[in-house]
């Protein structure tokens, strides 16, 4: 539909008399964003938290996209081959054939991960329901203890009564130096509380609580080793963690069986779930397999993998629980 | 001409006056007639009372109870009036809480402490018209003896604590009459803040309540508060006795100021003067030196602080603990916090109705706590405050607003209303506080907080006479005045620590009340010495 042509209301070359008492600022919009960030990073020698947040958001979106793709592919597969519920072809493409290792690599610095040390203990508070003990977090706690000086404390909130004794001692015996909180790098405070969903609080001022065992596990694992910088393997780890918590731990028997089949086929190709390296995916899946009580009746590859997990020695806290 | 006019005017006036007068007289006459009529009626009524009151001996004001006779009559407690008692004829003694007459019947609410029940006097074969009238005219808060039959009710009586039954009164006798004008109405005294303003109904201000404490204490809220307070004391004693503590009594009239020296009440003591004890600390410590190992005491403590705040009293009940420890003063913290947690648990499990009752008038969030109790260090607290934008020095004491803010931050992160703050700067603690062995800036001292307010201040004490002398000199304290205190450590003293809490403050904060006067039965502050 034709529209009227309107003459510009004011001329485009109006000269405005700017007062001389004001600063002249360069045009913010004209500056290319990429240059801005790189300059910024160079100046400070570290990445701007805003950029980091942006990256994190992007990663999150990517992760969701991959998840969606996996889900759609999975659905497509179920239509064509009723035997496989989950698609795993994606995984093989990422795997480089480097030798596997079980120690966590990568330098992680608590200062950069958790913010500047203000002379106080950095205390991670986890509220968990005694009806659902978070095995994964207990395992991660014991690994954290090998890496850092961790002050572990267990409390019972007034909203629950009668917590079984093994839950009170689940973080191991009290540290001999526990009277001096300043001597520790990290605090791990587990509170048994009547919460519908597991909850983690770290910095009340700058961070909202993290909800769900899977998300808290991701947070804790990042203190141990950085996530793969490549989005694809990182997504693979994430997807396995979600599978573990949503389908192994909470799913029906049918779903569980499907996941075990998927685990089996994936472990046939790689020593560990997310490729050549032991990762959070293995920890989460191991704990959830254990918790679901199906550890004895698993396919061969999964059996072998469970054995190798046990040989690492990280899982004694979780095993202790199930006895 | 002018004269005439004037005369005319006065005549008119007179006429007007007489007219007015006439009217007045008429009115008066009418009034008198009405009065006479009324009196006649009243007289007739009275006559009729005397004539045909068949229930004459079923009500009245009997002679004052002077223990003339010992009746074997069993009086039932209102709280025991349950549907199982239906159709029984019982006696009970209670106060008239409210009364409402309606034609041929009169509804009473009878109260015993926090329990109440609806009662009914209705004209029938047991009660006469005169009896109903008598019942309706009994003043509120009077004490009555009542014989009544218990009846189940179809619909629950929402306004009473006994909802399933009501009483049908057959006899009613006044044991003690209350004056018709009460200084305050009980229903007004329990009305939640704010509700009265909206509906245009009265609320009672605090001073009126405290001036008429006897009536104020009859309210369900006050009954609940002081029952809970008694519970705190009981739990404190039970828990500590179980832990092997010994209860001691310490003198309250002392010769020298026990702490610093300021804020003590001076009393004349024969030819000299003496002081009222600010805290039993010196005596607790002397008991430790005398090998009692673990002691506690419950008793009044006096502070001559002229501060009119919501949380200061000049006399309050102190719950004090002192104990010898083996190697680390955290043993003391653990003992105290375990005791506090036992108290909180006991209150949570056994005083739920009292807590609910108080909450009705003063709504508050339930008290939350962790077991074992959360212990933070002073530097951590400073870092938390720093993060929240509060700038303060490393060796500065927490101000009251900062304390409250810190309480909120801790609650946000750990969801607890009770925590311990450890390792205070040495500079802000008294001279007898043991310095931190690793950092001379800090000390082995701690405060405990409930809902962001300090309730306990304690420390490891210096148990060495020489070190104590040095510390006293450093604080520029006159050594002569504290000679006996220092001397008590000269003959061997075990390492020890302790602390003391204020009973009123603990109750106030546990219930989330806003004034310590509500939890002190007869509060003493700079402006109040009575009742």
UniProtKB/TrEMBL annotation, chain A:
The keyword Ubl conjugation applies. The keyword Nucleotide-binding does not apply. InterPro entries: AIMP2, AIMP2_LysRS-bd, AIMP2_thioredoxin, Glutathione-S-Trfase_C_sf, GST_C. One of its GO terms (biological process) is apoptotic process. SUPFAM superfamilies: GST C-terminal domain-like (SSF47616). Residues 1-47 form the AIMP2 lysyl-tRNA synthetase binding domain. One of its GO terms (cellular component) is nucleus. Keywords: Apoptosis, Cytoplasm, Developmental protein, Differentiation, Nucleus, Phosphoprotein, Protein biosynthesis, Ubl conjugation. It is found in: Cytoplasm, Cytosol; Nucleus. Residues 250-310 form the Glutathione S-transferase C-terminal domain. Residues 120-211 form the AIMP2 thioredoxin-like domain. Part of the multisynthetase complex (MSC), a multisubunit complex that groups tRNA ligases for Arg (RARS1), Asp (DARS1), Gln (QARS1), Ile (IARS1), Leu (LARS1), Lys (KARS1), Met (MARS1) the bifunctional ligase for Glu and Pro (EPRS1) and the auxiliary subunits AIMP1/p43, AIMP2/p38 and EEF1E1/p18. Interacts (via N-terminus) with KARS1. Interacts with EPRS1. Forms a linear complex that contains MARS1, EEF1E1, EPRS1 and AIMP2 that is at the core of the multisubunit complex. Binds FUBP1 (via C-terminus). Required for assembly and stability of the aminoacyl-tRNA synthase complex. Mediates ubiquitination and degradation of FUBP1, a transcriptional activator of MYC, leading to MYC down-regulation which is required for aveolar type II cell differentiation. Blocks MDM2-mediated ubiquitination and degradation of p53/TP53. Functions as a proapoptotic factor. This is Aminoacyl tRNA synthase complex-interacting multifunctional protein 2.
Automatic annotation (TrEMBL), chain B:
Residues 226-531 form the Aminoacyl-transfer RNA synthetases class-II family profile domain. GO terms for cellular component: aminoacyl-tRNA synthetase multienzyme complex; cytosol. Residues 1-57 are annotated as: Disordered. It is found in: Cytoplasm. Its EC number is 6.1.1.12. One of its GO terms (molecular function) is aspartate-tRNA ligase activity. Residues 25-40 have a biased composition (Basic and acidic residues). Keywords: Acetylation, Aminoacyl-tRNA synthetase, ATP-binding, Cytoplasm, Ligase, Nucleotide-binding, Phosphoprotein, Protein biosynthesis. It catalyses: tRNA(Asp) + L-aspartate + ATP = L-aspartyl-tRNA(Asp) + AMP + diphosphate. One of its GO terms (biological process) is aspartyl-tRNA aminoacylation. Signal peptide: none annotated. It comes from the Eukaryota. Its main location: cytoplasm. NCBIfam families: aspS_nondisc (TIGR00458), PRK05159.1 (NF003483). Catalyzes the specific attachment of an amino acid to its cognate tRNA in a 2 step reaction: the amino acid (AA) is first activated by ATP to form AA-AMP and then transferred to the acceptor end of the tRNA. HAMAP family: Asp_tRNA_synth_type2. PANTHER family: ASPARTATE--TRNA LIGASE, CYTOPLASMIC (PTHR43450:SF1), ASPARTYL-TRNA SYNTHETASE (PTHR43450). Homodimer. Part of a multisubunit complex that groups tRNA ligases for Arg (RARS1), Asp (DARS1), Gln (QARS1), Ile (IARS1), Leu (LARS1), Lys (KARS1), Met (MARS1) the bifunctional ligase for Glu and Pro (EPRS1) and the auxiliary subunits AIMP1/p43, AIMP2/p38 and EEF1E1/p18. Belongs to the class-II aminoacyl-tRNA synthetase family. Type 2 subfamily. This is Aspartate--tRNA ligase, cytoplasmic.
């Amino acid at each position: 539909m034709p529209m009227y042509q309107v003459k510009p209301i004011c001329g485009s070359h109006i000269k405005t008399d700017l007062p001389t008492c004001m600063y002249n600022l360069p045009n913010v919009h004209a500056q290319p964003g990429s240059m801005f960030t790189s300059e910024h990073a160079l100046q400070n020698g570290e990445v701007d938290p805003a950029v980091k947040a942006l990256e994190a958001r992007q990663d999150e979106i990517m992760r969701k996209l991959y998840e969606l793709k996996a889900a759609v592919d999975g659905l497509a597969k179920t239509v064509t081959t009723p035997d496989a519920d989950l698609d795993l072809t994606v995984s093989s493409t990422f795997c480089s054939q480097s030798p596997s290792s079980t120690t966590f690599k990568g330098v992680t610095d608590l200062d950069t991960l958790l913010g500047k040390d203000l002379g106080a203990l950095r205390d991670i508070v986890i509220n968990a329901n005694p009806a659902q003990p978070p095995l994964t977090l207990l395992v991660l706690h014991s690994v954290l203890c090998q890496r850092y000086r961790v002050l572990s404390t267990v409390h019972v909130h007034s909203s629950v009564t009668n917590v079984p004794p093994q839950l009170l001692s689940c973080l191991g015996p009290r540290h001999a130096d526990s009277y001096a909180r300043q001597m520790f790098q990290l605090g791990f405070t587990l509170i048994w509380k009547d919460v519908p969903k597991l909850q983690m609080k770290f910095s009340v001022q700058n961070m909202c609580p993290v909800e769900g065992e899977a998300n808290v596990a991701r947070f804790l694992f990042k203190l141990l080793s950085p996530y793969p910088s490549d989005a694809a393997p990182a997504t693979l780890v994430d997807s396995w963690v979600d599978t573990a918590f949503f389908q192994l731990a909470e799913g029906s028997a049918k779903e569980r069986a499907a996941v075990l089949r998927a685990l089996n086929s994936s472990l046939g190709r790689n020593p560990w779930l997310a490729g050549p390296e032991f990762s959070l995916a293995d920890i989460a899946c191991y704990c959830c397999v254990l918790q679901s009580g199906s550890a004895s009746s698993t396919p061969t590859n999964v059996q072998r993998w469970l054995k190798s997990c046990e040989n690492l020695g990280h899982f004694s806290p979780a095993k202790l629980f199930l006895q | 001409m002018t004269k005439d006019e004037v005369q005319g005017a006065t005549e008119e006036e007179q006429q007007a006056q007489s007219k007015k007068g006439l009217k007045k007289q008429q009115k008066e006459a009418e009034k008198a007639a009405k009065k006479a009529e009324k009196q006649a009626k009243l007289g007739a009524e009275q006559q009729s009372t005397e004539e045909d009151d068949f229930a004459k001996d079923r009500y009245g004001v009997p002679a004052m109870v002077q223990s003339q006779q010992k009746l074997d009559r069993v009086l039932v407690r209102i709280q025991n009036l349950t549907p199982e008692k239906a159709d029984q004829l019982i006696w009970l003694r209670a106060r008239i809480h409210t009364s409402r007459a309606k034609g041929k019947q009169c509804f009473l609410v009878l109260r015993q402490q926090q329990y109440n029940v609806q009662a009914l006097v209705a004209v029938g074969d047991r009660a006469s018209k005169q009896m109903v009238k008598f019942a309706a005219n009994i003043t509120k808060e009077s004490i009555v003896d009542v014989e009544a039959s218990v009846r189940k009710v179809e619909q629950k009586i929402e306004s009473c604590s006994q909802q399933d039954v009501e009483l049908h009164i057959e006899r009613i006798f006044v044991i003690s009459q209350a004056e018709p004008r009460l200084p305050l109405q009980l229903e007004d005294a329990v009305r939640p803040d704010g509700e009265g303003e909206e509906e245009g109904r009265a609320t009672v201000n605090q001073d009126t309540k405290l001036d008429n404490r006897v009536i104020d204490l009859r309210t369900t809220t006050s009954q609940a508060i002081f029952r809970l307070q008694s519970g705190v004391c009981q739990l404190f004693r039970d828990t500590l006795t179980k832990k092997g503590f010994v209860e001691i009594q310490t003198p309250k009239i002392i010769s020298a100021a026990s702490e610093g020296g300021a804020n003590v009440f001076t009393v004349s003591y024969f030819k000299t003067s003496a002081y009222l004890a600010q805290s039993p600390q010196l005596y607790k410590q002397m008991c430790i030196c005398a090998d009692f190992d673990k002691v506690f005491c419950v008793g009044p403590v006096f502070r001559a602080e002229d501060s009119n705040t919501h949380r200061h009293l000049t006399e309050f009940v102190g719950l004090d603990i002192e104990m010898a420890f083996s190697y680390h003063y955290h043993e003391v913290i653990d003992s105290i916090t375990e005791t506090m947690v036992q108290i909180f648990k006991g209150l949570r499990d056994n005083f739920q109705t009292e807590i609910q009752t108080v909450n009705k008038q003063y709504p508050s969030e339930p008290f939350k706590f962790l077991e074992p109790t959360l212990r933070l260090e002073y530097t951590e607290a400073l870092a938390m405050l720093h993060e929240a934008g509060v700038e303060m020095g490393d060796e500065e004491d927490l101000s009251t607003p900062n304390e409250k803010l810190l309480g909120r931050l801790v609650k946000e992160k750990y969801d607890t209303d009770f925590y311990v703050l450890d390792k205070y700067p040495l500079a802000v603690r008294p001279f007898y506080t043991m310095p931190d062995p690793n950092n001379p800036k800090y000390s082995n001292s701690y405060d405990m907080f409930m809902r962001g307010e300090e309730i306990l201040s304690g420390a490891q004490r210096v148990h060495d006479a020489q070190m104590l002398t040095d510390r006293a000199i450093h604080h520029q304290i006159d050594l002569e005045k504290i000679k006996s205190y220092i001397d008590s450590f000269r003959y061997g003293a075990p390492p020890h620590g302790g602390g003391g809490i204020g009973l009123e403050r603990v109750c106030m904060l546990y219930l989330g009340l806003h004034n310590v006067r509500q939890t002190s039965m007869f509060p003493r502050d700079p402006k109040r010495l009575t009742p």
